Hints:
By secondary structure, this protein is α+β, with helices and mostly antiparallel strands. Helices cover 69% and strands 7% of the residues. A 5-stranded mixed β-sheet has the order 2-3-1-4-5, with helices on both faces.
Amino acid sequence: MLNTVRIFGSYKALDEALNEYASAQTEVRELTLASDYLTAQVRGFALSPEMEFVDNYFEEANVTKRRDQAVDKIRSRMSHESEESISYLEKSLELSNGLMKTEYYAFTLGIDAMGYDLGSLPDELKSVKLSEEDAALDSEGKLALARDLVFGKDYEKVKNEINDNAKACTDKLMETMRKREEETSNILRSRLMLQFSLMTAMLVVIVLYLVFTDSFILKPIGSFIESVRGNRRFEYDGLREMSFLSSAYNEMLERTKEDNSKLAYDAMHDGLTDLYNRAGYEEIMQTHENDRMAFIIVDIDKFKEFNDMYGHAVGDSVLKRVAGVLKKSFRSEDYICRIGGDEFAVIMVNADSSLRELVKGKLERIADELRKEKDSVPGATLSVGVAFSDREHPQGSIYEDADKALYEVKEKGRNGFAFYQYQAND
């Protein structure tokens, strides 16, 4: 009985280690999301210098404090052997805090360019002083410099370092968890061996049953397998042939898993572009139907002409190029889908209308890239409709309202984008 309790305790320890790892994973993701949120606000301000972005930024930095809370939670929950993994996360926070100096300077440039009242600014911005050279710039020059600061390579390099340290934290946590799992498994193994020894006494009761099973069931099965493999008469033999059954079964099981996994992936993805297909899109929308999101419908303008003029092979190349540009232009957590022949959908999760200017900037860069020929693939233009989950006066589903915005673009001659806006005569 005591040994059984100890076995249960070992299982509990293993379960706690897994829960600890899962909790840490959540906090690591929370830190990176918070850092990305601050980036989204300062970039939004650089593109459209409205004070709402400043308020959102400092609400997160000084009130919500998700980054600091993530580090504090991990430190309070994790054991001493996870110290190295925690140091990676603290490095991410340190880099993120260091990046805030650049962000403060970008905010100050935009505020100075727009002539906003300095009295209502957060203390962090009041202390920022522009260099003489930057202060001498005109308003457009200051805004351009602010955009360069938060969209430039140096800024992006630090963002990558933040993400790399977060990943290193996750990897180190996984390594620590595996060591604990191995240690717990060894303890379990020894206790189970003890349990096995204690149960040996009970085996005497069923010896006769085992002899019967061996003589009249297992040996005939082994002999039968040999007869099938050797294509000869069925003869009785030893139990060693059971290993063949085990090996054959395991091989079949693994193949079945691989086949099922491939079938599941193929069922949810488009074979040409490797994006989510219509079935995958519907599953994603069902999962995220009540979440904050930006929904973007993309149509390739006059796509039929590519097939008619150049052939279907070129048409397929255009589709793959559009898919590739969309995929690299949005975040890894966003979903890119091909929901029709030349129709795509982008589902930006954890997004709302505060990111309107950010989305606008992405769409403009996508349009600029695709309109040029590249690698013998002709340029293409897009018609795009956008709707946010927090839009005012929705007239239908987020898909339907985004489609209305797309219709406006097509009515005006295609090659552009529009955001859903309620009109009384809709």
